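Technical note accompanying the year-one report. For the benefit of new consortium partners, we illustrate the data format agreed upon in the data management plan: each record pairs a sequence with a structure-token string. No post-processing was applied to the example shown here.
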Amino acid sequence: MKLRWLFWLLIIAFLWVVISRFTELRKLVEILIQGQWQWVLVAAVLQVIFYITYTGLYQSAFYTVEVESRIMDLLPVMFASIFVNVAAPSAGASGAALFIDDAARRGRSAVRTAAGILLVLTAYFSAFTLILVAGLAYLFLLHNLEIYEIVAALCLLAVLGGLAFVLLLGLWRPDTLRSLLTWLQRRINTLGSHIKRPDLLGTDWAERNANEFTEASLAIATHPQRLARSLLIAFGAQIIDLLSLYTLFLAFHQPVGFGVLVAGFAMGLLFWTVSITPQGIGVVEGVMTLVYTSLGVPPENAAVIAIAFRGLTFWLPLGIGFLSLRRLRAFSRPRRFSGEIWSVHLVAIFTGLMGVINVISAVTPRLHTRLVRLTEYSPLGIQHGGRLAAVLSGFALLLLASNLWRRKRVAWLLTVLVLMISALSHLLKGPDFEEAFLAIALFTWLLYLRPNFHARSDPPSIRQGLRILVFSLGFTIAYGVIGFYLMDHQFRVNFGLSEALRQTIIMLTQFYDPGLQPITGLGRYFADSIYIVGTITLGYSLLMLVRPVLARHGTSQEDRARAQQIVQAYGRTSLARLTLMEDKRYYFSSGGSLIAYVLAGRVALALGDPIGPPDDLPRTIAEFRSLCAGNDWTPAFYQVLPDYLNFYNREGFNALCIGHEGIVDWDNFSLQGKTNKGLRSGYNRIKRIGYHSQVFEPPLSDDLLANLRLISDEWLTTMNGTEKKFSLGWFDEEYVRGSQVIVIYNPHGDIEAFANILPEYQKHEIAIDLMRHTRDAEHGLMDFLFVELFLWAQEKGYETFSLGLSALSGIGEGPQDPAIERALHYIYEHVNQFYNFKGVHEFKEKFHPSWSPRYLIFPGLPGLPLVTIAMIRADSGDDLLGGYLRI
């Protein structure tokens, strides 16, 4: 909770910095626009490279003190530390604290990390000292060296000496270091006693930290090659920073000598380091301007270049640092933080609204003029000159919005690109700051939410979509250039090749046709056809880019063998054996569990609870949800037990009771007594006629299997149905041959009915799956089959018998039950033309079972229709065996 408050305080601080310095930010934008944009872009890229190199310095320094780290892990911490040092000025301590906290959360030594930070500063300032000496020498030779510059340089040298002294203290004077830490420990615990916390630091704190710091100092001393590497990286970072400044001179067409460049750079960074204001705000620009002016640079150019350099080196890392905060472990939110969901959905809604505005403005003439103003201030800020372009771009935005809602990574990237192009176009054509600011605001919001867009698209589809995108772009440009060149008499403008190319590119990238004046119907048709040709191919490529991950390959034999071992070791429901059927795919958790699922549309529908060690169940659910999120799948679980509902709730799932499973206990079942008189009479009647049963052990013979196949086919014909799958087995010869089967013979010795028996592995319980009979089977024969099977199971020592799920039974019967369960109860009572829910339940009820609820687990009510359709498709075996998923 404290960290959450700190996070929001940092956000407020960032907003305050932006608002309080908005005039300066706007002036910076105006200045950058005046420069040659190619060199300005190079300067910005060099700044990014500088900070990546600077992060490499941290990695090298940590490696020197034997702290394991990666540049990609350190990069967000480094940018966030820059932001925190501005938002909460503390002479760099707050930024260092982020590094130490992040290292501790990764299981690294905090003390060694602190030593590594000291080494970073020492190496960086040492490398800068070389440049500073060169700059001071140049100013001295030109008699431009001022006393305040000498004082500032001496202050920097004092800081550098202090850093080196602290590092060497652990090497040269470990006892002195230990004494200093012991004194600090006593002082802190004394202060803690005033708030009834006298043990803020443990008794071994000073000894332990002194030892670790000494070991870090020894690591530096014993690995001089690592230290040299850090110094070289620090010097390389300084050179890259200097090159960034040089490109700004080129951007504003100002010649500059090497000595002048180095002198101004050195003085600027010097007063950035030793300035009395946070990050040298208000000082660096002035000093650099004075130095460059004194060395012959025109004052206006000196000021513009100094402000531009200062702006890039201040605002660029500050903005990236703010966006990096959420990447830090200290501020990472729990998975189910509702604000995350709403933020993603709001971004998608804003994008979709822009698409709706574009479409409405194109198709409703009366509203067009009213919506023009709204379009100017819409989040994307895209203006359209033609109605066709508005409609087509609107549909594209709606497509992007729907995929942003689904957290698609590719959709996020495409939307960010559109926003960036939109913002740049407004700055260049006006500059129109209001529209650009709105585009930048949404762009920043999307960057901030970047970790939340993690759903992958199908890699082969992405490659195909990119190929189509490149082809469509090239084809459309060629189509437009050739058409304008050959048909220039259809327009008021005469198009040469270069003019035709420019006109086509403008129409494709900015969705308007400046100066395009067709004078014939053919000319208007051709102009519109460019949009049609480009948008059809572009739209198809977009659909391919945002496709969910497809399941093109079946499950391997190795995975099936592994799944069988887990099921046999941990399966404990009547569904366990069905998870081994050929239609299932498997997710294996890191803890040795599995989830058997099928893919139907975008839904990964799991059969039952995960199978594996009970203590691994919560982790397996969480990992499977992460897998589905990354693949743009919707996870759902069908027929789960009530035992683990809290684990699903913890992961944000909803639970819906879909019926009850009947369990027959021999203590509650008997053919004796008045209650079972009807069942007993029917059983005895069929027994007297001459019917009898036999249970066959696997493997079944070919002749028996052929007879069972005939009965199965006849039963399917009689029922006017096809084989069901997913939660039921089907007549697969390998499956039936490997099952125990009870067969009912008529008095003539012919098979009239059969059922295969399912094991439940960990419980002394059995169930049946396929239960089929001939068209002219004796009335009451299935009752006879069940009773015979019960008697056989009792003889074999089984304790219970599962009758399977009685769908929709026993739910929604009370006024306090959820509305959706009451709706399902209405279906149970009144809808029988598709499936006789009530009749099936009454058949099972005659055996007097106990009823246990079963649940459907799904991620929220909006996803329930999608999951329901997936259940229907999975039940019908919708193209799952082929392994290629349709969308």
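Partners are asked to follow this layout when depositing records. The two ends are 42 Å apart (CA to CA).
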